[in-house]
Amino acid sequence: MAQLWGGRFTKETDKLVYNFNASISFDQKFYEQDIRGSKAHVQMLARQGILTEQEKEEILGGLDSILKDVQDKKLEISSEYEDIHSFVEANLIDRIGDAGKKLHTGRSRNDQVALDMKLYVRDEIDAIDEEVKNLLKELQKIMEDNVHTYMPGFTHLQKAQPVTLAHHVGAYFEMFRRDRGRLKDIRKRMNTCPLGAGALAGTTYPLDRMFTAQLLDFDEPTRNSMDSVSDRDYVIELLAALSTIMMHLSRFCEEIILWNSNEYRFVEIDDAYSTGSSIMPQKKNPDIAELVRGKTGRVYGALMSLLTTMKGIPLAYNKDMQEDKELTFDAIDTVKGCLALFTGMVSTMQFRKENMEASAKNGFTNATDAADYLVNHGVPFRDAHGIVGRLVLSCIEKGISLDELSLEEYQAISPVFREDIYEAISMKTCVEKRMTLGAPGPDAMEAVISENRKYLEEN
After folding, report:
1. pLDDT band at 19 (very low <50, low <70, confident <90, very high)
2. DSSP-derived secondary structure letter, 29
3. 419: left (phi over 0), alpha (psi -120 to 50) or beta
4. 53-71 and 31-47 helices, crossing angle to 10°
5. Phi then psi for 160, rounded to 5 degrees?
6. Contact 316, 229 (CB under 8 A)
7. How far apart are CA 443 and CA 83, in angstroms?
8. Which residues are identified as catalytic?
9. Confidence band (pLDDT; 50, 70, 90) for 17?
10. How far is CA 235 from CA 277, 328, 376, 458, in A?
11. Which distant-in-sequence residues (6+ apart) come within 8 Å of 385 by Cβ?
């Protein structure tokens, strides 16, 4: 088949070169965006008097028929065409004749592909944002139900102080909320229309670029035609944001994997999101959590690949930039799939609350509160720190928790201790007296949960 650029060439392109150069195998994802952009371009050309009203109607009708036939699977996007632009234009000419040859007036494939990529990325940002919001809704439910579910908080993977499951999950709520903010920022910054930039220097046709931008829901046209066709910053920003989303998912997956282990037994993963062993009948493996954790590297790789591709490209368009598409498509599909599966896994996961609380007690997470008890009774903090350290050592030797020491054992190390020490170091007291904003105390948590609820309703 003759290429759209064939007039300059006297020799047929070698098949291997053609296949290497072609992008139809992946940019066919753009068919809806490509047709949408072409329809806006045609409406603008007619408004400017570059096309007649009849030509406009013929082209729009032809484009609509192509779109419907592709959607209905009556028309196949095949490797016969070099790219999605060639496919649409060639089929349009076949259907409506010479009027179809005017579709490309005043534009280049360079600004056309830049437009298609922006439209596609913008659509996908909205879809990803919806997936993150769905996850936030599930995290909100867990928080609402677990304000009084005690568990150990960790630093250095060591049990540190008691918190609640609502507080712990709330940390991830904040992470994914920031992720939505990043997506929103990227969408706003990228929302300028490159159509009309031509190959790199605009066109002599009297295009109304503002009108085209408005038809396609952009805020304004791009302001430099060279940058218009060579800008992939927004794709890099998106891949960075997707990498951060995956990092957050991976951290949460790592904790779920630990919580699912025999040593912790904090969670019971639903059968639909786990598998067994082929030879060990007792096993229940957290495969989905492990796969999400593993796929994080795949998205990181897309970001690093595109950064590396773009770092040495002079202005304006270069064919290297075609490499942005497969990387971005794969990263988007990976993140959307991981978000959907992770949300499903979390929404069906059962929390073993009694194990969580027992782990907090047996991990001496209330040791700081025991030291605070002494300080409140006039003991200098440094001395209190040492006293409680001796108490913990005694507990370790006896295989018990601070709650299980007798008052006589407390007073043998420091006579300051009284019967009220047990209330002071209870999980309930340890958590509930931490009431500053952001802490796990119930009033503080309820305030955050209420604000989260408002945020989800408004965003």
Report:
1. confident
2. G
3. alpha
4. 170
5. -120, -65
6. yes
7. 59
8. 156, 277
9. confident
10. 40, 7, 56, 27
11. 371
Q: Residue type at 18?
A: Y
CA 242 from chain centre, in angstroms, equals 4
Torsion of CA 243, 249, 254, 258, to 10 degrees: 180
The CA-atom distances, in angstroms, between 163 and each of 158, 247, 428, 438, 448 are 14, 23, 10, 11, 15
Query: Is residue 283 over pLDDT 70?
Result: no
pLDDT digits (tens, 9 = 90+) for 289-337: 999 999 999 999 999 999 999 999 999 999 999 999 999 999 999 999 9
> How big is the chain, counted in residues?
459
Preceding amide of 316 cis, omega within 30? yes
Kind and range of the H or E run holding 164: strand 158-164
Q: Which residue has the tokens 């007073």?
A: 411
Alpha carbon distances (Å) from 258 to 162, 262, 439: 18, 9, 24
Phi/psi for 48 (5° steps) reads -85, 0
Q: Are the C-beta atoms of 186 and 108 separated by less than 8 Å?
A: no
Q: Which residues contact 253 (CB under 8 A, 6 or more apart)?
A: 286, 289, 290, 292, 293, 342
In this structure, how many other beta carbons lie within 10 angstroms of the beta carbon of residue 167? 26
